[in-house]
Write a structure and sequence with these properties.
It is a single chain. With about 375 residues, the protein is of the alpha+beta class. It folds into 3 domains: about 15-115, Immunoglobulins (Immunoglobulin-like, Sandwich); about 140-270, no CATH class; about 290-385. It has helices at about 165-175, 180-185, 240-250, 280-285, 295-305, 370-380, and strands at about 15, 45, 55, 65-70, 75-80, 85, 95-105, 105-110, 115, 140, 185-195, 195-205, 210-215, 220, 290-295, 310-315, 330-335, 345, 355, 360-365, 365-370, 380-385. The strands form 6 sheets. A 6-stranded antiparallel β-sheet has the order 15-22-16-17-18-21. Strands 4, 5, 7, 8 and 9 form a 5-stranded antiparallel β-sheet that branches. Strands 1-6-3-2 form a 4-stranded mixed β-sheet, with no helix packed on it. A hairpin with a 6-residue loop joins β12 and β13 (about 210-215). It starts with 13 loop residues before the first strand and ends with a strand.
Length: about 375
């Protein structure tokens, strides 16, 4: 069917709405196919907004009127003096075919259709987002919250240029043993306009508090164009987001950081998470009170094997083996009493297997294996929840 509005009240400039969406995809009537245009189109389509366009055309000598079509459906018939029309109920992110038909008595001449894709609706303005103070400029990193597996992995962690091994090792433990704890921390809010920049926004909830912080995908960036702190690989953002969120949460007093070791309610920087106690992070991630004690492999076995706890161990300031980074936190991935080297450990640097540190000394860079004697000789503390 075709719809022809009553045009008796139309003025020289017409303001009309297109037909309901259900009618915009009907085919042209049988036997009413369009003649092929013999000339270039003489009308233009101006996109005014995400839902509105203006069609304008050249007046044709001898024309007795014009028809306006959208997706082969007639939506208006206008007088010969009219040469523009406003269509204002279109759908964002939708492609439409617009056309003008020239009427001369009973004859009709279709112009060449113009396809137009409507733009997306404007992004909402982002609420105030606290960015930890940093000497490096912030840049947007686009990606996904998690990788192809759809959840957090401890291998997503790559500690950057701040000593937050206590936090990153704790995140590694949770990603491996309690991934839902990580997933429950995030509420995806979508895309926003932050001072003219498109950012993605998340609420981050720490389990030890009813409060939450807002974080976006902007992170401090060095002169080489890479993240300064947690290194983002494959566009996986959850680790860098939680590192930033922990700084923000400390500013609001929701979590404990290394700056004071207490809830402080003062502006934070990434430098304020340089060194800390894994028990602070484990408590914030899980909501359960974590404890830190002196290293004792018997206790480690009881906590990990019997209770299935999340555990992070801290190396001695002067470890007996040069392959161990001094005063550094490692995630304990597993405890297998039947194995020759029963403990599987993870360095949150997550660099090549044997890595040269800043002093040119080779160290275990990611996953390695140890027995009880090795643990007791090189580690000083254990934190678990």
């Amino acid at each position: 069917m075709r719809f022809v509005p009553n045009c008796a009240s139309l003025e020289d400039r017409v303001l009309l709405s297109v037909l309901p969406q259900s009618m915009l995809h009907q085919s042209v009537e049988v036997g009413k196919s369009k003649p092929k245009p013999k000339s270039s189109p003489s009308f233009s389509v101006t996109v005014d907004s995400d839902s509105q366009v203006t069609l304008s055309w050249n007046k044709v000598s001898g024309a007795t009127g014009y028809l306006v079509e959208v997706n082969n459906n007639q939506v208006a018939q206008v007088k010969p003096k009219v040469n523009s029309i406003l269509l204002n109920t279109l759908s964002p992110n939708t492609t439409y075919d617009f056309d003008i038909v020239i009427l001369k008595g009973r004859s009709k001449k279709w112009e060449t259709e113009k396809p137009v894709t409507m733009p997306p609706p404007p992004l909402p303005i982002a609420p105030y987002i606290y960015h930890p103070a940093d000497p490096n400029p912030y840049e947007v990193y686009n990606g996904t919250l998690y990788g192809p597996t759809g959840g957090p992995l401890y291998t997503d962690i790559h500690q950057g240029a701040v000593g937050d091994c206590w936090l990153e090792s704790s995140l590694a433990e949770a990603a491996l043993k309690d991934p839902q704890a990580i997933e429950h921390m995030f509420t995806t809010l979508g895309y926003y306009n932050e001072n003219g920049i498109v950012v993605e926004l998340w609420e981050v909830h720490f389990a030890n508090t009813a409060g939450y912080v807002l974080v976006d995908n902007e992170f401090p960036t060095n002169a080489q164009g890479t993240p300064v702190y947690d290194q983002i690989y494959g566009g996986v953002l959850w680790v860098a987001l939680l590192e930033k969120a922990y700084c923000e949460a400390a500013a609001f007093g929701y979590v404990i950081n290394s700056f004071t070791g207490t809830y402080d309610y003062v502006p934070e920087t990434y430098a304020d998470i340089n060194s800390g106690n894994p028990a602070w992070a484990l408590t914030a991630i899980t909501g359960y009170q974590a404890v830190t004690t002196s290293i004792n492999t018997n206790d480690m076995d009881v906590e990990m094997i019997t209770d299935g706890d999340l555990m992070v161990i801290g190396s001695d300031s002067t470890p007996g083996n040069s392959l161990i980074v001094p005063s550094h936190a490692y995630a304990v991935l597993s405890d297998n009493p039947g194995a020759q080297y029963q403990y599987t450990l993870f360095n949150p640097w997550n660099t090549p297997d044997v890595y040269y540190n800043d002093n040119g000394v080779t160290v275990f860079g990611n996953v390695f294996y140890a027995n009880a004697s090795f643990i007791e000789q090189n580690y000083a503390t254990q934190s678990f929840v």
